[in-house]
Amino acid sequence: MFPDPLHPNEALRDEIRAEALRLGFDACGFASASDAWPNGGWLRDFVAEGFHGAMGWMEETLDRRAHPTAMWTDAKTAVVLGVNYGPEHDPLLALEDPTRAAISVYAQGDDYHEVIKKRLKALARWMHGRFGGEVKVFVDTAPLMEKPLAQRAGLGWQGKHTNLVSRQFGSWLFLGSVLTTLDLPADPPERDHCGSCRACLDICPTGAFPAPNRLDARRCISYLTIELSGPIPVEFREALGNRIYGCDDCLAVCPWNKFARLSGEMAFHARETLKGPSLADLAGLDDPLFRALFSKSPVKRIGRDRFVRNVLYAIGNSGDAALMAAVEPRLADPSPTVRGAAVWAARRLLDPAAFARLAAEAAEQAPEVQAEWTRAS
After folding, report:
1. What tens digit of pLDDT does each residue of 256-279 get?
2. Known catalytic residue at 192
């Protein structure tokens, strides 16, 4: 759909775009909220194949995700907003030191949900006060399929890795939306510019893409380190490397990042460094220290136990026997999930004789941790 120069509300659209940019958004596009929506069918196929893994909420909200108007029948237009979070350094550099943690770029600063939501609400209030009409704001915690909506609004296209790619910002756009009852002209949709490139598919450490534009979340490191509770399947632990929260590989390798720009939003760079935090330090976090360290970060939502689990798998992948000093206290951790990860790390760091002595002294009661000792030995 292309913009209609005769549309009576074209001037309104232009005013809204200007206000969005003034509020700090880096991209703003418009799409019909009521047009046909094939993406709902694609999501049903994704769930039917079990690719959503333990994310039961995706199945529970399928009907609400089927169409933008499924949540609000009166919506006519989607105003889709983007905020650039382009990093200062190539995220793949964080993988070079296995004794330090690699944390996904999006989680290195303040929680983007809070940063964006304030701006979305400000824009929605302004729209309602200026033009009337009803408005509702959405960031990705709501069941609205924002990536295909962003493509329809011209902000970018969904690459073969299923993430949004922008000709202006590469892989680094946070998205939010304002649905409105105002009838506004749509922007031209963006077309796919991936061509024959498959860099994002080939770099995936766990082979999470069974085909272009198809993601099996059960194999995705972001899913494994963030969404999955309990032990991470053994077959994927080595592939984690030092990635303890999310994975940027498929995003970072995209050739379109050559046009990306450093984010001007300092809140997203609050913790970014070329070298990540020490795994040894992170392994020692108790719950209060974890909460204090990540009080403004999206990392806080996975909780201390899941986080330290990830850290211990990374330590096991480090090849640095000196890090055993950080592992041993976790063998007595109150959390069985943490204890199990510590057993796996110990087996990777110690020689067989040393590990056998440690196993002989273990008095583990939790079946899942006993299984780790048995498997490791």
Report:
1. 999 998 887 767 765 545 567 999
2. no
